[in-house]
Each structure stands twice: as structure tokens, then as C-alpha cells.
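Appendix B.2, paired examples.
Example (i):
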Amino acid sequence: MNDKIYVLNFFASVFFGMILLTIVIWFIPEMDYFDGEYPSWKQQRDYTHTKGSESQILFIGDSAFKAAVIPELIDDSAYNLSLGGASPLEMYYALNTYLKNHPKPKQVFISFGPMHFMYLKRYQDRTLYFHFLDPKDQIESQINIFRLDDTPFLDMLSMSLENIQYMIKFPTKYFQTIKTSELKRGEFNQDNYDSVSEQRGHMYFGLDPQWFNHYEPHEQLQREFKLLQSEDFYIKKLLHLCLDNDIPVRMVQTPVNKMTYETTQKYNQFQSYQEYLKKLSKEMNVEIETDLIFYDINLFGEHLHLNEKGAEIYSKNFKEKFF
């Protein structure tokens, strides 16, 4: 009997200890412990949730688009809502929230590389981890993922349990980050937040002038293009959101370099991606740019993202082409 009481007391102590630690985590400022990706996600979320009065030109997409488009070089009203690691799923909810708090945009430009139609790798470690979605949208998006991507039942249970842990900030998902950070990232993260805000959503990634000398092909570039049905669903919802609100919308390409492109050639990733975009354009009756744009490797800060010079060239060319 004493052994049973001891075991019960042990598990009760662990349970209530975790609950107490969860409560403590909610009182710790997120800026103090999250990594360097967090400020841009928080800044974008804050911006879309804050009331605005200006009709804007919006750029919506992944990290390549966030790095490539310098809003101030295009228009005084331009704003870059793109995010590192974001897919059509996150951008649909971002624009939907934006429209609840801002006037209808003058125009929306959308750009995602092929990998963001193939993977949901950042859904948990960015979208859920950073509490980017409102709880209702988080639940809705996860149900859609389960439904559309034919998720096995056991995986559904496992992922649902993980989602709950993210939602309540359970220590199993946050304590190690807090411990590693030593709660010393606040000033760094705030500086990054302020920088992204001042640049109207624009930011760079990498910026290594010699990246090509130690380039290692990214595993996500070394696979065939296999469309996730959940991402097909959300890119169409994103386009419908624009069309239903009479917002001019166009999908465009960001530059690639031949070194990165050659990595994909064995798997015809870009070719299959282009075919998908052509079908999407016809189905949605939306202009979608499918021809790839090639820039020299010296205009990239790493294998996917333009550096300062590359972004300046792209932004100026973009203005000449579309305005």
C-alpha cells in the first residue's frame, strides 16, 4: 500500500509541477527566449491584427519573396507580409486577418517556391510554436491537414497531442528553449522586430558573400515535386479570398541561381512545379508567372535568398514590369 501511495504521490507531484511550470511559462515574455525567426512572425501577426486605414500593395509568400521585395523601392503603400518558412496555409490566414482590420488592398502579389507546396515542415516548429494562428484557425487548419493529406489515425492522435502542448505552452515544448536562451534574447529580438517593421516587412536571410564556396544541396531540393493536397487547398483559398473581394491578384516568381536549379534537375522538381502552376492558372483564371528568373550566384546571400544587391535589382525590375 505504501508503494502505491508513493507512486501516486510521485505522479501527482510531476503532474502538478508541470501545470505550475506551464503557468510560469505564460508569464515569461516570448521575446526573451524565442529564436531569431520569431520577431518577423510576431511583427507580421501584430501588423495584420492591428487596424489600418491605408489601401496597400501587398506581397505575400515565402522567405525568398520576403528577401527579394524591398517595398520602399516599389511604392509608398507597398508592404511585404511574406514569412520565412511560410506556405499558402499561413498566408491565407494572414490575409484573411488583414482584411478584417485593413481596407481592401490595391493589389496582391503572391510567390511560393516549389517546396512550400510539397511540405508542411514549418507548421509545427513555426506556425504552432509561435502561436501565429488564432486558436480557431489552428484547429481548423489541422483538421484540414488531417482530412486532405490522408493522415493515418495514429499520426492524427500524435499530432493532436503535440498541438495541444503548443497551444497551452506545455513545458515539453518550451522549457528547453527557455533554458538554452537563458532569457537573454529580448534585446536582439526586439531590434529585429523594429527593423522588420521599419522596412515594411522586408528582411534578409543568410547574407554570406561566399556561400557558393561551401554549398551543400538542400535535401528539400533533391526530391520530386509531390503536391500536398492541403497546400493546393490553401493556395486556392488564398486566391479565392482575393477574387471574392475584387482584389487584383497575380502569382510571380522570385529569382533562382543555376547552382540551386541544377540540384533539382535530376528530379524535375521545377518542371513539375511549373506544370502545376499552369493548371492552377487555368482553373482559377488568375495570371501566374511560370517562367523562371535566373540571377547570378553573386546576387544571393545563400542558395535561395537574394542579398542586398540582388533584392535591389529585383525590386526595381519588378516595379518596371508591373507598375
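Example (ii):
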Amino acid sequence: MSRLLAGHPHGSRSLMWFRRDLRVRDNTALHEAANAATRGVVATFVLCPEQWRKHDDAPAKVEFWLRNLQELKSALSRLNIPLVVVQAPRASSVPALLVSLAERTKCDALYFNCEYEFDERQRDDSVAEAFRARGLAIHSRHDHVLFEPGSIRTQADRPYSVFTPFKRNALRRVAEQDLAVLPVPPKQAEIEVASTSVPIAIDGFKSPVDPSQWPAGEDAALKQLRLFCGSGIDEYAHARDFPALDGTSRLSPYLSAGILSPRQCLAAAVRLRRSTSVSKPGAGASTWVDELLWREFYHHVVALFPRVSMGRAFRPETDRIRWRDDPECFERWTQGQTGVPIVDAAMRQLSTVGWMHNRLRMISAMYLSKDLFIDWRLGEQHFMRHLVDGDLAANNGGWQWCASTGCDAAPYFRVFNPVTQSERFDRQGEFLRAWLPELAHVQGKAIHDPGRLAANVRKHLSYPMPMVDRTATKQRVMAAFRSVSGHARSNIVASPWPTPTQSDATPRLASRRTISCTSVAASRAPLAPSG
């Protein structure tokens, strides 16, 4: 069948809309756009600071996007694909902006890779409607995930809400299906459209993070992937839990922004897992595959249960819990001044490098939601505002797991003891001393809990006392969750892809993820008492 479209006697031209897929290798939509075009390809990226603010995108993440856009522009130029960067004052203006660009550059088809959050899906539906109204074709592809959301289902033909059976099913699919990594698309004929400049900064998104922490571009991402697979992955199953070690992949920013695809990572891990050095159960490659599938699982949850994109708990009955409204305690948590060393070191790492070790994300999230009993949504928002790898699906999934409000979450009675966690995963206090200079000279186990020091020694430390009594806080958590456990668990219904059902599109809070202690307290009444 001919690929020529009516209205373009000299062939077809593709408009490729980049979002969180800033790469030329293994880019599904780009690959199809380039192979379908006979009159070249035009690439575009839409800057939308208003939406980024609404979605709490971190300055470090925006700065990372811009640096990677510059690298992408160079990679595309080698393929004779110009990159046209445009700015939208608001998300609602994106459809008209893209239609205008398509018509101005004589493109007759739009290609893009799907995004799964509720706002993004609504925007993309509006873009599709606008293009079709002008007789322009539109092609969306699933690329940010391994499998189309909703395609991995239980025997009862429902989407999974528990990770382990989801993982088993996904691993079967990996073994059965071809998840081949696509090559760089073919070079295009030169066209009359010129690239535009990529801004080096966006007003309101000045990043405090040293850019050298996160080198930009596909080559840098692939170099880090090769480095991890060549050495670090063998010890990953053990070393990933110890924040003082360089035991994680450090690939999360590249996956979040789409500098790497999940298929590239999976292919690298599968090759290693099949080798003799990592063939034993629980080896590093297998453990890393599990982590990639956790990412996949949470993206499926976001796509199929839109309520989690709108500030709602996955388990609706837990929306009845009345969390503590304590701005002062919350502020101390954000500043790393809780008096709990492992939590404070984690929070200071976040504010300095725009990233936090995964074990520490769990410890600090559970401390806020369980020990301080402050709404997990405030912590989720704070993380998004600082993480270079901020991703709604992974961040929301992790926070709801820790707060016991999500799918396959930790039982509400599981409350990490941060001192025990610190002693177990930073035994010598190396990580603590790196981030807490006021405790640098504290020796022995007291580094994990300065309260163990003699009073005449403790008083000379310029370090705060713990904010709460952990015994009392655990009792408070137990009482609060028991108070809602008597309510029948709501029937949690997944929406079909791609259109969310109206019944699941619950009213959002002030915006998708913009909340405060006051708005949390005022937005859901009546609520169950916290005890």
C-alpha cells in the first residue's frame, strides 16, 4: 500500500512531537515517523512552564531536559531532522500551536509516544481532535513502557493491583515477545525547515544542582548503562541498599526523561542474566529486572487508575484519614532538621544533588507519613519539586506504598524504625557523616541516634532533638488506620485505555499535585479521626 497521503502530491512529511523520549535510538514514534516520511521529518518540543509548575516539576529536572534537548538537536541534525522548539502559555493552547506548526512546515501527520497521566491524556486527546478536524493524521505509540497499559491482566481479565503476579506475567511476556531495540532511524533528505534555538534556562526554574552530577545526552546515558552492567550490576542485589556505596545504577533520570528506553535497559539486563556470572537466583541482573518491572507496574497503575494522578489514594477508604496539619514539622522534615540522622542526611542529599537513594526514599517517606503522621501527598509534592528523576508514577507509587494507601502497599502496621534502618544500612555512619557535618565527630552507634550520648556531650552538638516519640506515633498510626478499616473497601475499577471513565475521574485538589497542609485539611470532610 502506498504511503502517500491525499493533498500532498509529492509525498508525506512527518511531525515528530518529543516529550519524555529525548533520544533517537529505540524511539518508537520517531522510528515510524522517519520510515513513513517521503518528504522529510520535522521534530518539535513544546515548552510549557505553566504546566510544569502545576505539576511540580523540579528546576533540576527542567534544566536536565534543556541540556538533553540540546544534545537531541545535535543528534537529529545528523539525520537532517530540524528541531523546532515552541512555547505554549498553557496546556490548553498546545493543540492549536501544534496544528499551526504542522501546517506551516507542510507536515501531514503527527507522531508521538503516549504519556499516561490524566492531564497529559486529556491534552493528547485534544491534540488528536484538533489534527483530525484539519484532515491531518495522528499516530500515537506506546514507548515509555514495555507493554501497553491494560494488556497484562489477571485470569479474571482485570488489571493487576499486586506487583508479584504482575511481574510473573510480565516476565512470561518478555520471554514470548520480541522487545527488540530499534536502531537510529534513517537519515532524511534535507528540507527547507530550520531548527530553532534551545533555551539554556527557563524563568522560575533555576536549578541549585551542579549539572556535572547528571551529564546530558544519549551517549552519556549509554555510557552509564555500560558502566553499570560491566561492573556494578553483579553486586546490585546487595549493594543497592547501602547509601554510602555506589551501588545503584544512577539511570533513573535518563529513564524518566526518556534518554534511555526501558527496552534498552531490559535488553542489557537480560543479556547479563543469561550469562553464567549472574545465573544464580537473586543475582544483580535479576534484581534489576525486578526494579524495571516495578517502574512498569506503577506506570500501568497511573494509566488505568487515573485517581492517583489527582491527589487521591489508590485505596479510597484511606482518604478518610485525617492527617496532622503541622507546617512547622513538615518544614523541619524538608530542611533535614528532624533530629533523626538518617532522615536528615537523606533530605539534605535531595536538596543538594536533586536525587535520593531509593532506600532513603522509603525511610524518609515512611517517617513523614507514619512517624510525623503528615499527609503523604505533601511529601510526594516536595520530592517532585526537587527530584531530577521526578516521575509521577514511580514517585506516587513509592509514597503510597510507604503510607499504606496504595496498591500492594506496606501494611499499615509496618513502620520503619529509622535508627534500626540506619544501623543496618549505614553501619559505620559514612553516609551520615558525609551529609551531617555537625555529627562528623560522633563515634559508634551514637551517630545513628545522638540521644545515646551523655547529656553533657549531647548539649554541645548543634543538632536538633527528635521531634516525636516513636512509641506514641506508632500507636497513632494504628488507631487511624483501624478507624477506617471498618468501612467497606470501595470497589476500585480500572478505566479502559485510552479514555478514563468519568466515575474514576474524581475531583482533583487545588491542582493535580499542588497541595498544602491547610488545603489537605480542608479538602476532604468529614474524615475519620486520627486518634
